[in-house]
Q: What sequence folds into this?
């Protein structure tokens, strides 16, 4: 053996082990989750459609479904989640101190949070934003259409300021009617004293079913503010962040590719689309690259469903909230929901 | 005779309520005010209310919808405790009630011994029944909730608070300077820190500063934190009783040859505690209401579970019912306690 070939062989071995190391960087969080046998997930104390205790005493909702999908991907069982309901003061510390593995709790992604809290946002599972509820009979399609109308708001609220600024910038003549409390404002709207009431999309969905005739009202789908929300992790442990991010992407990709909890077995066996096959672990070995089983997204979709199924079940037409997809629709269908490809 | 009695009491009432034009005026105004508040309340809570049904759709507009409370009654009582294990909570509750009843009804001679025995047996028994182990399925504290959790926190925090409070109250009166200093520092520290800060620190800061691997249950941390704060308040309540005792009591006991602990246990404390009982009851009632603060650290007490179930889209808008119901429960507990302490006070012996 010449020196050259032995050097080359050594380099090859070193290169191979480097590649191995890059594939599986240490992930203390994943190891801990596997050792524990369950995922610790921080959720909201109670937000209609997103996180709540149902009649059977189980946590459910859109944010809770993400926890379940993650548990299914990592542990193969969507029920292996332990929930920690968190208050608004407590949500960051509980993640920072390592008491939860991931926070899925309607938290708006902002620059300063990302830059200063030692936290990373791993994608968007709900585009929240301030919008308006109006009577269907008023025939208003978007916020611009409110020109000449009146809007009930709680005095001094962020919503009041946002709405006033937004209308002023566009030279729209909208009368802002102030009330002391949110409840008063919505009651006044319900009584017909204003043409619209304003709040976040999610909050409006919860408010609408409290109105006298919920079916007579509609929520404008195009918001006037930008509050994207999604799962959050601590800094460090890149492999765990990767998993958290791509499980969310996977649920969106599944909807994009037409994979549902019902057809997932058939798709895995018969689909000729290679992205579907990679997503479901039929080829490509994507799960193993993150230290998971290749069934990771198959399990998540099979047990929890794709993003669209989860949306409809919790906040959409299959739920009492009856919230339209709006922005939370795939980008190919007029929304802004997007995932990078599984390639 | 009875007719005369009622006539005289009637005239007494007329005398009191309408004695002068001014008192008459005040009476009418107050009656109107009560009617103004009470009539809509009664209409809402009783007359227009919906009692039967299973879903939100069964609720009639305008009145309270107690269907919600019925559907969620289990959660209000037990939180998210597994349904098939709830009998354990019931047994623990019955054991506590029977234990206390046995002590109260026992003959005077046995009462102290029985009380001490219960104090040794009941708390571990309760924890075993609720959390499991030794043949029972393990139920994590995060699944505990509702009224059961409120009572658990109140009882166990006061099990820490009462003995500690008495000790520190005695310590504050001690002639030994070190003990006095330690007691003063403990009392003033825990009395000076807001309860919500204590709970928050116990829940969030402790895990950060604790060495890795040591993990104290979140509920236990909250109970201990609350227990310390209430201990400081209890200590001050007991100190009031100690100071109200004439000095001669202890001096006479010492003159009879009793040691410090005997004099304290037999002469001083029984009298001091009876004097400070109203103040201690006050602290205990405050404690029960303060348990709601644990909501900020993910513990779903009665109020917390109300919030979590109010967010169910199937029941959205039931805020009034949920809060009225939990408020009524808190009131019932606190009212029962204050009646009990009054009956204790009026008895000659503790």
A:
């Amino acid at each position: 053996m010449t020196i050259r070939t032995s050097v080359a062989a050594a380099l090859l071995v070193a290169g191979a082990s480097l590649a191995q190391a890059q594939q599986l960087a240490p992930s203390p969080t994943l190891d801990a989750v596997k050792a524990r046998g369950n995922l610790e997930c921080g959720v909201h104390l109670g937000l209609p459609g997103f996180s709540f205790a149902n009649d059977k005493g189980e946590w459910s909702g859109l944010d809770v479904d993400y926890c379940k999908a993650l548990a299914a991907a990592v542990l193969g069982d969507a029920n292996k989640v332990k929930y920690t309901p968190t208050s608004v003061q407590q949500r960051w510390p509980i993640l920072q101190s390592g008491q939860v593995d991931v926070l899925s709790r309607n938290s708006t992604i902002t620059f300063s949070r990302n830059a200063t809290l030692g936290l990373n946002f791993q994608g968007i599972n709900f585009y929240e934003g301030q919008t308006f509820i109006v009577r269907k009979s008023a025939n208003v399609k978007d916020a611009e259409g409110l020109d000449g109308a009146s809007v009930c708001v709680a005095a001094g609220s962020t919503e009041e300021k946002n709405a006033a600024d937004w209308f002023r910038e566009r030279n729209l003549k909208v009368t802002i009617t102030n009330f002391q409390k949110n409840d008063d404002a919505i009651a006044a709207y319900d009584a017909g004293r204003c043409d619209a009431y304003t709040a976040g999309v999610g909050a409006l969905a919860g408010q609408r079913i409290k109105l006298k005739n919920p079916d007579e009202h509609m929520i404008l789908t195009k918001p006037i503010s930008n509050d994207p929300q999604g799962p959050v992790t601590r800094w460090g442990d890149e492999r765990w962040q990767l998993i958290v991010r791509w499980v969310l992407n996977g649920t969106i990709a599944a909807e994009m590719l037409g994979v549902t909890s019902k057809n997932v077995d058939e798709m895995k066996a018969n689909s000729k689309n290679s992205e579907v096959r990679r997503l479901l672990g039929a080829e490509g070995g994507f799960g193993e690259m993150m230290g998971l089983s290749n069934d990771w997204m198959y399990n998540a979709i099979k047990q929890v469903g794709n993003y669209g199924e989860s949306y409809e079940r919790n906040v959409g037409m299959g739920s009492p909230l009856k919230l339209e997809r709006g922005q939370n629709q795939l980008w190919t269908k007029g929304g802004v929901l997007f995932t990078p490809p599984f390639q | 005779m009875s007719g005369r009695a009622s006539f005289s009491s009637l005239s007494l009432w007329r005398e009191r309520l309408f004695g002068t034009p001014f008192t008459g005026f005040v009476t009418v105004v107050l009656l109107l005010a009560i009617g103004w508040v009470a009539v809509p309340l009664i209409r809402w809570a009783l007359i227009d209310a919906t009692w039967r049904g299973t879903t939100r759709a069964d609720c009639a507009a305008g009145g309270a919808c107690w269907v919600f409370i019925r559907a969620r009654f289990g959660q209000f009582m037990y939180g998210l405790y597994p349904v098939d294990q709830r009998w354990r909570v019931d047994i623990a509750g019955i054991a506590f009630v029977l234990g206390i009843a046995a002590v109260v009804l026992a003959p005077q001679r046995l009462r102290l011994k029985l009380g001490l025995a219960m104090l040794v047996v009941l708390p571990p028994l309760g924890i075993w029944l609720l959390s499991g182990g030794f043949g029972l399925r393990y139920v994590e504290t995060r699944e505990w909730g509702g009224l059961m959790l409120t009572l658990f926190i109140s009882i166990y925090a006061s099990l820490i608070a009462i003995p500690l409070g008495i000790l520190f109250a005695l310590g504050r009166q001690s002639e030994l300077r070190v003990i006095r200093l330690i007691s003063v520092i403990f009392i003033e520290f825990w009395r000076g820190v807001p309860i919500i800060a204590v709970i928050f620190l116990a829940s969030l800061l402790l895990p950060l500063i604790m060495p890795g691997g040591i993990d104290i249950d979140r509920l236990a941390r909250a109970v201990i934190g609350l227990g310390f704060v209430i201990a400081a308040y209890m200590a001050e309540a007991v100190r009031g009783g100690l100071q109200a005792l004439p000095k001669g009591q202890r001096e006479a006991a010492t003159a009879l040859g009793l040691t410090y602990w005997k004099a304290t246990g037999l002469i001083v404390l029984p009298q001091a505690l009876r004097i400070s009982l109203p103040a201690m009851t006050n602290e205990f009632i405050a404690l029960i209401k303060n348990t709601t603060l644990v909501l900020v650290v993910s513990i779903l007490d009665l109020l917390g579970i109300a919030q979590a179930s109010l967010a169910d889209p199937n029941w959205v808008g039931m805020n009034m019912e949920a809060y009225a119901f939990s408020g009524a429960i808190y009131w019932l507990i606190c009212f029962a306690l204050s009646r009990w302490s009054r009956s204790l006070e009026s008895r000659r012996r503790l």
About this structure: The interface with chain B takes residues 44-55, 57-58, 61, 82-87, 89-90, 93-94, 97-99, 206, 209-210, 212, 315, 319-321 of chain A (CB under 8 Å). The longest helix of chain A spans residues 3-23. Chain A has 14 helices and 14 strands. The CA atoms of residues 152 and 185 of chain A lie 5 Å apart.
